């Protein structure tokens, strides 16, 4: 019988480390207390959007507007709201010792402010207890893009009205779960929320408010984060507090002065507004004049906070070119990479090493962990009923090797969490892009661990000395 190329490669190599990284990738590189696991977000996996008192959010509205490219919705997603014990069992079987998940703001405070929904808190009680029973560290993220629609109706991240409600929501959740959940992340990727939600319309709330709309959303998320950090710290001295941001090393498409200036400007918008604000209490010089009208006295002091742990999401570098017809006069150039994922993103593992060393050398080597790193591919179920995702397995191997390389060179990196545990609702792409270590059949909800899951589970077992 003649095997298809995919099946042949899967059988021959999916469980083996690629030769180029064999010398770098060894479980002995990592300390035994290193955090290993995966990440998810509430909206992408939970489903149950209209049960137990959950309120509407901006993604519900965006979906109803017909803006999801494949016409699907997150109404069911992975049905994690009811199937979470099965999903936690799969984490335990993979020897994970950490799991980052998000809490859905509209489940807890359905209108964004005011009345608390007890059933929402009850669900996260059950989830946290299940995670702990499996011997896994729960790492909670308070905001993974599910802004309650009533707050968006008041301006959302364009104004300061959201700051107080977010801090109060943070206080409510940590008061309930802080006896068991000790690691708390405030935001997830505020740069993506701002640029794609308020500037490019590709994500909820899908507004085209130009450069100032983007900068306002960045600044007000920074302020809300600072307020939440202070609100939690005032009541809980024992919690480890942090946040999660998407970082991409930025480089110019060419050596022209215009492209170099474009790269500097985009680096400021994409990376520095959030990182420099939190860690240094500063604005990037290149944006200071433009942001001056929205920055009030005391803002930068309120944004800066001594966090305990910084989550870094990495997918690829950003290669930029000057384009006067686009926002901030920049656009993504062609990085001419050898490989791309099914999102069209270049595969550039060495960029992860670069950014970890940047935090070591430029930001005082804060404690960091990889909160997301993963890839979407056109996964199919083979004739043997399995998913032989060689590309994703190689992606994991190469990127974990770069984390080990940075660790060896002194970077203060504490863990690696893959994106994502499950195939899920990939925002504006709907259910058409699969990032999971575990395949989800959205019709039957059957979970099928992929070859990448199996390789990762074996590696984690060795790294933890189990």
TrEMBL record:
User: Which superkingdom, per the lineage?
Assistant: Bacteria
- Signal peptide feature range: 1-22
| Reaction(s) catalysed by this chain's protein | Hydrolysis of terminal, non-reducing beta-D-glucosyl residues with release of beta-D-glucose
One molecular function GO term is: beta-galactosidase activity
Q: What is its EC number?
A: 3.2.1.21
What keywords appear on the UniProt entry? Answer: Carbohydrate metabolism, Cellulose degradation, Glycosidase, Hydrolase, Polysaccharide degradation, Signal
Q: Which PANTHER family match?
A: GLYCOSYL HYDROLASE, LP05116P
**Record family assignment:** Belongs to the glycosyl hydrolase 1 family.
The protein's name in its UniProt record: Beta-glucosidase
């Amino acid at each position: 019988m003649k095997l298809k190329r995919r099946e042949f490669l899967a059988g021959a190599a999916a469980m083996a480390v690629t030769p180029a990284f064999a010398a770098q990738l060894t479980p002995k590189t990592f300390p035994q207390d290193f955090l290993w696991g995966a990440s998810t977000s509430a909206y992408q996996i939970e489903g149950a959007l209209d049960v137990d008192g959950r309120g509407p959010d901006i993604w519900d509205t965006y979906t109803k507007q017909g803006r999801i490219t494949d016409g699907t919705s997150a109404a069911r997603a992975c049905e994690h709201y009811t199937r979470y014990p099965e999903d936690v069992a799969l984490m335990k079987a993979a020897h994970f010792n950490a799991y980052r998940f998000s809490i859905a703001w509209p489940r807890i405070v359905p209108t964004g402010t005011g009345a608390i929904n007890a059933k929402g808190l009850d669900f996260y009680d059950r989830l946290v207890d299940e995670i702990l029973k499996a011997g896994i560290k729960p790492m909670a993220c308070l905001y993974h893009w599910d802004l309650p629609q009533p707050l968006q109706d008041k301006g959302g991240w364009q104004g300061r009205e959201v700051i107080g409600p977010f801090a109060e929501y943070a206080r409510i959740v940590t008061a309930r779960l802080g006896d068991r959940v000790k690691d708390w992340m405030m935001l997830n990727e505020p740069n993506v929320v701002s640029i794609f939600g308020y500037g490019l319309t590709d994500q909820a709330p899908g507004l085209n408010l130009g450069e100032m709309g983007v900068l306002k959303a960045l600044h007000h998320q920074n302020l809300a984060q600072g307020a939440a950090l202070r609100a939690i710290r005032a009541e809980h001295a024992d919690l480890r507090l942090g946040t999660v941001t998407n970082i991409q090393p930025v480089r110019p498409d060419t050596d022209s002065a215009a492209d170099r200036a474009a790269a500097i400007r985009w680096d400021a918008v994409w990376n520095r507004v959030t990182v420099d604000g939190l860690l240094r209490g500063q604005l990037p010089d290149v944006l200071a004049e433009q942001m001056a009208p929205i920055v009030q006295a005391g803002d930068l002091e309120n944004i800066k906070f001594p966090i305990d742990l910084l989550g870094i999401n990495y997918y690829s570098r950003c290669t930029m070119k000057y384009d006067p017809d686009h926002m901030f006069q920049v656009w993504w150039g062609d990085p001419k990479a050898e490989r791309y994922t099914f999102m069209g993103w270049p595969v550039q593992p060495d960029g992860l090493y670069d950014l970890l060393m940047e935090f070591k050398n430029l930001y005082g080597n804060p404690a960091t962990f990889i909160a997301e790193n993963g890839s979407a591919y056109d996964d199919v179920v083979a004739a043997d009923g399995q998913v032989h995702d060689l590309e994703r397995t190689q992606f994991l191997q190469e990127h974990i090797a770069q984390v080990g390389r940075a660790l060896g060179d002194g970077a203060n990196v504490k863990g690696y969490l893959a994106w994502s545990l499950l195939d899920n609702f990939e925002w504006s792409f709907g259910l058409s892009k699969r990032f999971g270590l575990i395949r989800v059949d959205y019709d039957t909800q059957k979970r099928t661990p992929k070859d990448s899951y199996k390789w990762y589970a074996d590696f984690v077992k060795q790294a933890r000395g189990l």
